[in-house]
Write a structure and sequence with these properties.
Blueprint: H1 2-11, E1 26-30, E2 33-36, E3 41-44, H2 47-50, H3 59-69, H4 82-95, E4 100-105, H5 108-123, E5 127-131, H6 140-143, E6 160-164, H7 179-194, E7 202-205, H8 221-231, E8 235-239, E9 266-269, E10 280-285, H9 286-289, H10 304-319, H11 322-341, E11 347-353, E12 356-361, H12 371-383, E13 386-387, E14 389-391, E15 398-401, H13 409-426
Parallel strand pairs: 3-13, 5-6, 5-7, 7-8, 8-9
Antiparallel strand pairs: 1-2, 2-3, 4-10, 9-10, 11-12, 12-15, 14-15
Amino acid sequence: MNDLFARHRQVLPDWLALYYDEPLEITHGEGRHVWDADGNRYLDFFGGILTTMTAHALPEVTKAVSEQAGRIIHSSTLYLNRPMVELAERVAHLSGIPDARVFFTTSGTEANDTALLLATTYRRTNTILAMRNSYHGRSFSAVGITGNKGWSPTSLSPLQTLYVHGGVRTRGPLAELNDRDFIAACVDDLRDLLGHTRPPAALIAEPIQGVGGFTSPPDGLYAAFRKVLQEQGILWIADEVQTGWGRTGEHFWGWQAHAQSGPPDIVTFAKGIGNGMSIGGVIARSEIMNCLDSNSISTFGGTQITMAAGLANLSYLLDHDLQGNARRVGGLLIERLRAVAAQLPGVREVRGRGLMIGVELVKPGTDEADPKSASTVLEAAREAGLLIGKGGGHNTSALRIAPPLSLTVAEAEEGATILEQALRSAY
């Protein structure tokens, strides 16, 4: 492993982050477990950054990929592609967007790039509203709308970005308000901001902020925002790269917690739909999707082998009600972790929905982020056989827990026990 780490450092960028003091090489997985190169077995509570959505080595997906690979792997969007049409039909139907069109990409970053291209072209302005503490990808345009300094390596951007309040409920100048007053204050802030700028193209928002530490506003905030946005024709882009496909348990899409004003104009997705295969995409009303007046293709977006994986994975997800499982098992896991947190002075908050859970750590007796303890917990959990993630806009002090949606009650209890021991080792 030391040899592989040395080779990694020799040929890959310094800024390519690795977890753990002794980085891990994962060689294979099954169900909710993975194994490293030394044969150690881990319960996986991060799923390749929320990407292994159903299970590792899911037979239905591996079979579909193998069979498709035996026929044709790729042809590009210049040719008719049956699996792509079939998956687009299913995604359009599930989206809740009327007269929806779907464009497939290779990642969430590229999906958000496409959404920005569509919105700015349709609205003929390059001004974008985004949320503080947000993350939307690593490309030049996506970095330009990311409100998290830890993931924003440049201030240069093709867009003019204006950040609004609301993505983080329990921090910031509005944290002490109740939910109703919080939403009202955020709406007032949005109205005030719009009074000082030319009408923007769109608001882009994650219903639950992923890299930001699984933070979210009260239900209904984005519905209230949308009423204001619609007065000026401003579009709403819901970034569902991490929240989509039932992960939150209560809803199939994260935006549905804010549905009072109807569906978004544009939805972006990626990660879990491919269960590890590289799929992203954009869903939009036809008039928005069709607003481009020049040719475009995607060489690798919608390629046959990834579409076969997506179709098989989506079918498994729906047939086995993994959204319901996320709600049931995730609810038990959250309550278990909250019971542990009540005994530990360094746990500021356990938050989230379904199998998308954040545990924010602070220095005991303060409200100050504690990234050192977050790293300690990450290491201790790995040592005991559990893989989790971390993030957060306040100095990376939130643990991120997002297992595959097929997680069992026994596995949730096992993971919670390991995480409790890891937390106690830090506090």
